[in-house]
Amino acid sequence: VRQNDGFINVYSEVGKGTTFRIYFPRFESAPEAIGETVEPELITGNETILVVEDEELILEFIKEALGTYGYHILGAGSPEDAIELCEKQETGIDLLLTDVVMPSMNGKELADRVKAFFPGIGTIFMSGYTVDVVAHRSILEKGVNFVQKPFNLETLGRTIREVLDSPA
Q1: Model's pTM, two decimal places?
Q2: Residues 86, 90: Cα–Cα separation, whole Å
Q3: CA-angle at 153, arms to 152 and 156, nearest 5°
Q4: d(CA 112, CA 110)
């Protein structure tokens, strides 16, 4: 909530219960973009992607969505689970898609560990924070492959294809 400039009010009364009210700033939707749409076949693939996200619902959503584009998805709910998957993965992993802020290890530290297993792996970082905030906190350098949450699948799919199609 705080990441999106919101706040929570809590009202509690003994014997009656508790009410949580979550407030977010008003968002004026952007006008619909006029222009070309990305054809689904331009963002599909059959590569193996390791998705690391500590929020289970987000992890499941990303796994299911990318699976519909033809990718082979390995999912991990923590950096430790991701490292364990890397140790067991015999056929290689083409891309790491990881959250930046996680309890035990940040996304940059995880990416460095995963690259020890798969030196040519592409990496995309994702966060609810903007890339400037993450860079300011010295978690990531500017210029890395980054998608800000919430993202739409078209943006994520296009970024994945760009990273996978770029020279290592």
Answers
A1: 0.74
A2: 8
A3: 95
A4: 5
Count the Cβ atoms, other than its own, within 10 Å of residue 149: 16
User: Measured between alpha carbons, how far is residue 139 from residues 102, 109, 127, 131, 142 in Å?
Assistant: 11, 9, 11, 10, 10
Q: What is the pLDDT of residues 45-100, one digit of tens each?
A: 999 999 999 999 999 999 999 999 999 999 999 999 999 999 999 889 999 999 99
Say if CB 93 and CB 45 are below 8 A apart.
Answer: no
d(CA 79, CA 130) in angstroms, rounded, equals: 21
Here the tokens at position 12 are: 């509690």
Give the chain's domains with CATH numbers. 42-165 (3.40.50.2300)
